[in-house]
Amino acid sequence: MNHVHETAYPALPAEISEGELRAAFTPSATEIRFVYGQFRQAPIRVLILAQLKLLQRLGYLPPVSDIPAAILHHVCAVLGVRPVPRATLVRYDRSGSKSGHQKVLREFVNIRPASAQTYSWLDTVADDAARTKTELPDIVNVLIEELVRHRYELPPLATLSRIAAHARSSLYETLYRSFVDSLDASQVERLDGLFVSDTGQTRWDALKREPKAATPP
């Protein structure tokens, strides 16, 4: 699987500066009015607004229990409410209301969740990208770019990595089959002969051996 730093997949920095908290995680007056008009409980308002800002910043919704404390504390400070207990975060992640809240957030920012049809489309995008890109992170980046352009919520990086790896593997298999099918019987026999070993070493071993360093005359 690709690591986040190898691709353009959005991720939060290990430490979030005060400047980024203010710039990226301060709810606007419109967003606060929207959330206050939808939800009554203060902890839920905090969690909804934190998720909203993360969706805008990252393009996907991580588990609430994974939201950095600095972001939650910042949103609480903006709203003038008490910090949300850790137990509340865990309980909310397990609640049935979470998916409904996130549906409201996606509609608010006009981002669509990925569906089975989306993944089928991504397979086609990855197949096309694999024809011109050999590195898996580059194929993943094409998928991310297309998802963002069509306003889809980003699936997990592991999912995009699997799609990219399958596309590249399928292309290599197609190329291999095309090459093999182009050979006649005598060529196949010659190639097979490279891997026949009577002495523990094949002719292929000899061909791929590194040449010895040149010696002075």
Low-confidence stretches: none
DSSP strand content? under 5%
Our count of helices gives 11
What count of domains describes the coordinates?
2
Main sheet makeup: none
On the 0 to 100 scale, the average pLDDT is: 91
Distance between the termini: 50 Å
Q: How would you sum up the global shape?
A: elongated
Q: Structural class of the helix and strand makeup?
A: mainly alpha
Helix content: 55-70%
User: Could you tell me the radius of gyration in angstroms?
Assistant: 26 Å
Number of strands: 0
User: What is the N-to-C order of secondary-structure elements (H for helix, E for strand)?
Assistant: HHHHHHHHHHH
Give an overview in words.
By secondary structure, the protein is mostly helical. The chain folds into 2 domains: 102 residues, no CATH class; 66 residues. The chain is 63% helix and 0% strand. The chain contains 11 helices and no strands. It is elongated and about 80 Å long. 23% of the residues are buried.
What descriptors fit this protein?
elongated, single chain, 2 domains, mainly alpha, 11 helices, 217 residues
What's this, in brief?
The protein contains eleven helices and no strands. It has 217 residues and is mainly alpha-helical.
Task: Outline the fold blueprint.
Blueprint lengths: L17 H7 L4 H10 L3 H17 L10 H11 L6 H9 L2 H13 L6 H15 L5 H14 L7 H25 L3 H9 L9 H6 L9
